[in-house]
Design goal:
The strands form 4 sheets. The protein has an 8-stranded antiparallel β-sheet with strand order 15-12-14-13-17-18-16-19. Strands 5-6-10-8-9 form a 5-stranded antiparallel β-sheet. The longest helix is centred in the middle third of the chain and has 14 residues. The two termini are about 30 Å apart. By secondary structure, it is α+β, with helices and mostly antiparallel strands. It has 16 helices and 19 strands.
């Protein structure tokens, strides 16, 4: 266990604070660390992919969970897995995909731990069908502030407080998760362009029922009649039949017939039908060089993002169906570039994500117009529809529309703009995502999360000394 103090940030690389990291290698070490973490408490931390300050603890301890990474048991017939909380979704894909099982919910990166996925109650492109990650968690073991290990099952208050509770109810040690069956490691993907935000919302509303996964990239620099123009991508896991039928494999072999696309087609690894048929469950994500540790400030600006947005929109097909794509390309395109967040420079980035309920579409339109009018350079801007909410008291999704955007943290006027958006979201009965937040005002939190008082009461009873504490919890008085 380390005693050195280090500076830590979230993935956005903003708001650094110093803490004492404690790398845990056994459950016994975890119990000892919790009982002896000191007056400033501690907070579990996985792979550091929360964008904001949820896994930081200024002046206290941070419990590094990544060495607790064992897969204890796999039910290859039923698709359930018992694993340590420090196991990454990437590792579970490596282990489970060859057996015909895939994670039930994955966010935009597979480099998150199971404990982090539960603590943030992460969502993915399939929320309208599958809900959040916690919906597929059968139980977990939780180390609480008194040093006791509790088995927590679905349907209990402690389960609902922990799923989305950002690590503040205790330290998850193990979890049992239900996976979903798949026949191949490929996706069958349909892509289409939407001319503006209203066109996109109609396409999502009328078409999402036919797809397990759905997401839209939005050009937030487009204005006027093109405001909110987008590329809509939807799909499902490709069946084995897609590899046996030459016509269905066409999406993965198009580059052979179209030389102009041969160097840009992301499905290059599956242009060999024979190879795909021999190993239909292969999981071989690509890996590219990382950006330099130090890049000039200002690379992500209105000019560069405007050019990228134009190219991305024009490059997308007006309509294409049945293209085969690797799972890694469909779900986690940025994971192939280690430390991609460096492109924003030393100032870092803010990822702002909110949700407003169905019936509040006009609020979404106003926010998109406001961001577009301010010319915020966000290339990674995505819109999705959420389905039924899960019972986590601080779980983010509610049925409605969620927009996420990345913005350089040093953009002039960004802080007051986001404060204005917070007010707009709260007035519409929406909320911001705590796993990506590092700046929300605490007075808006109760309006966004109606079960906040229940969460605070349970936490006060379970952890009266505030053993589990983070920069996020202090800032928002959680």
């Amino acid at each position: 266990m380390s005693a050195d103090t280090v500076s830590l940030t979230g993935w956005g690389r903003t708001a650094p604070t110093a803490a004492r990291p404690i790398r845990l290698r056994s459950y016994e070490e975890a119990v000892a660390a919790v009982r002896g973490c000191g007056a400033r408490g501690g907070i579990p931390r996985g792979l550091g992919r929360a964008y904001g300050d949820a896994a930081q603890n200024a002046g206290g301890a941070v419990f590094d969970m990544t060495a607790l990474d064992r897969v204890h048991a796999i039910d290859a017939e039923g698709g359930t897995v018992l694993c340590d909380a420090g196991v990454s979704l990437h590792r579970l894909m490596q282990v489970l995909l060859p057996l015909g099982w895939f994670v039930p919910v994955t966010p935009g990166t597979r480099y998150v731990t199971v404990g982090g996925a539960i603590g943030a109650d992460v969502h993915g492109k399939n929320h309208h069908v599958s809900g959040s990650f916690s919906r597929h968690v059968l139980s977990f073991e939780l180390l609480t502030a008194d040093g006791e290990i509790r088995t927590v099952r679905r349907g209990t208050p402690l389960f609902d407080a922990t799923t989305g509770g950002m690590g503040l109810t205790g330290m998850i040690l193990t979890a049992t998760v239900q996976f979903q069956p798949v026949e191949t490691s490929l996706m069958s993907v349909d892509t289409e362009r939407a001319r503006d935000l209203d066109d996109l919302m109609v396409r999502l509303t009328t078409g999402d029922r036919g797809y397990r996964y759905s997401v839209a990239w939005i050009d937030l620099l487009a204005r006027g009649a093109a405001t909110g123009r987008a590329v809509l991508t939807r799909g499902d896991h490709a069946p084995l039949e897609a590899l046996r039928t030459p016509g269905l494999l066409a999406g993965a072999t198009r580059a052979h017939r179209d030389p102009e696309r041969a160097h840009t087609d992301p499905a290059r690894a599956h242009r060999d039908p024979a190879r795909a048929r021999r190993d239909p469950l292969a999981f071989r994500p690509p890996r590219f060089p990382a950006p330099p540790a130090f890049l000039p400030e200002g690379l992500v600006n209105r000019t560069t993002v405007g050019l990228l947005n134009e190219l991305w929109y024009r490059k997308a097909p007006r309509a294409r169906t049945g293209r085969l794509q690797r799972i890694s390309a469909f779900f986690h395109p940025l994971d192939g570039v280690p430390h991609w967040n460096r492109i924003y420079g030393r100032g870092g980035l803010v990822q702002y994500q909110f949700v407003v309920a169905h019936g509040q579409e006009e609020a979404l339109r106003r926010i998109v117009r406001r961001v577009s009018g301010r010319r915020c350079p966000s290339f990674l801007a995505v819109l999705k529809r959420f389905g039924d909410a899960d019972p986590g008291w601080l779980s983010f999704p509610v049925p409605g529309w969620t927009l996420a955007l990345d913005i350089p943290a040093g953009l002039p006027g960004l802080a007051p703009l986001l404060d204005e958006l917070d007010e707009e979201v709260a007035a519409a009965g929406g909320r911001v995502y705590l796993a990506k937040d590092s700046r929300l005002r605490p007075d808006l939190l109760a309006a966004m999360y109606p079960r906040l008082d229940d969460f605070r009461a349970l936490r006060a009873e379970l952890d009266p000394r505030g053993v589990f504490t983070s920069d996020l919890s202090r800032r928002l008085t959680l």
